[in-house]
């Protein structure tokens, strides 16, 4: 998909694997400078070396998005060295599951630190720069768990529901020159999904609950993210795009 990201600086959190990594690849293929981030330095370096095969316009920052100073220092460093940040993809996830009656408050809060608090921190830092330059696109990655009630995922779902609303509020404050949108994926074949669905039988059961009868490849989420980053989506803001193979559209009333 050809887009208009040439010479843009795109900052992607949680991009050493999965959706973030595929988004970074696609942005590089479309001539952007890409900043990838991750907590595990070994995985981050491995990702960077893979991405360097596409373009040398790759910057890697080893940060924990739940640490405010890590995020703000990283963004300030990119802004100083590159002179701008044109696109921000808030992708880094954190999933801590548990029954509500068993979940302790610290586990509940951990879901919010990466999935919502970190987005507030990065947005608060980047938005003034984008507004001042009258150019920018922010894409937040939520989840269908933020749309539906899911047992044992109350904290994650609440954080992602909050993210969807935060996206809309940010879009109104950022207008008219900066756009803010949300991608809402369903099941995606990422490392965390593979850990959550450890055997073929469970994988088949999961696939059969999805109208398209398969789990998404990360690149299938990366394409709409890059579309939202680009000027091809120039009249789209405050939007929430569900990319779930039809899962949330199916009533599934026993047929």
Note the main attributes of this structure:
255 residues; alpha/beta; Rossmann fold; seven-stranded parallel β-sheet; 7 strands; 15% strand
Work out the helix count.
Answer: 8
Coarse structural class: alpha/beta
The low-pLDDT segments are none
**What general form does the structure show?**
globular
State Rg: 18 Å
CATH topology: Rossmann fold
CATH class: Alpha Beta
The quaternary state of the protein chains shown equals: single chain
Which band does the percent of strand residues land in? Answer: 5-15%
How much helix is in the residues?
Answer: 40-55%
Q: Major β-sheet, in short? A: 7 strands, parallel
Question: Would you mind describing this structure in some detail?
Answer:
- The chain has one domain: Rossmann fold, CATH 3.40.50.720.
- It is built from eight helices and seven strands, in the order βαβαβαβαβαβαααβ.
- It has helices at 18-29, 41-51, 68-82, 105-133, 154-174, 191-196, 200-208, 218-229; strands at residues 9-12, 33-38, 58-62, 87-90, 136-141, 178-185, 240-243.
- The longest helix is centred in the middle third of the chain and has 29 residues, at 105-133.
- The termini are far apart.
- The model has no long low-confidence stretch (mean pLDDT 95).
Question: Care to give the gist of this entry?
Answer:
The chain is α/β, with parallel strands linked by helices. 45% of the residues lie in helices and 15% in strands.
Helix/strand layout:
Blueprint: E1 9-12, H1 18-29, E2 33-38, H2 41-51, E3 58-62, H3 68-82, E4 87-90, H4 105-133, E5 136-141, H5 154-174, E6 178-185, H6 191-196, H7 200-208, H8 218-229, E7 240-243
Parallel strand pairs: 1-2, 1-4, 2-3, 4-5, 5-6, 6-7
Helix pairs in contact: 1-8, 3-4, 4-5
């Amino acid at each position: 998909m050809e887009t208009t990201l040439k010479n843009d600086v795109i900052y992607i959190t949680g991009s050493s694997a999965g959706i973030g990594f595929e988004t970074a690849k696609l942005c590089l293929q479309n001539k952007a400078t890409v900043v990838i981030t991750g907590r595990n330095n070994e995985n981050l370096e491995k990702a960077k070396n893979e991405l360097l095969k596409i373009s040398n316009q790759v910057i890697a920052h080893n940060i924990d998005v739940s640490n405010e100073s890590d995020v703000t220092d990283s963004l300030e460093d990119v802004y100083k060295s590159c002179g701008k940040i044109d696109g921000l993809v808030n992708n880094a996830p954190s999933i801590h599951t548990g029954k509500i009656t068993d979940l302790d408050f610290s586990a509940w809060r951990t879901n919010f630190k990466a999935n919502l608090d970190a987005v507030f921190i990065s947005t608060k830092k980047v938005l003034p720069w984008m507004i001042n330059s009258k150019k920018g696109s922010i894409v937040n990655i939520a989840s269908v768990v933020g749309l539906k009630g899911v047992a044992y995922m109350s904290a994650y779902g609440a954080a992602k529901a909050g993210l969807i609303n935060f996206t809309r509020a940010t879009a109104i404050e950022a207008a008219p020159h900066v756009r803010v949108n949300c991608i809402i994926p369903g099941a995606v074949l990422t490392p965390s999904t593979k850990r959550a669905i450890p055997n073929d039988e469970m994988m088949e059961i999961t696939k059969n609950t999805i109208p398209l009868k398969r789990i998404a490849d990360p690149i299938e989420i990366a394409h709409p993210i890059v579309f939202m980053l680009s000027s091809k989506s120039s009249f789209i803001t405050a939007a929430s795009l569900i990319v779930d193979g039809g899962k949330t559209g199916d009533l599934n009333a026993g047929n």
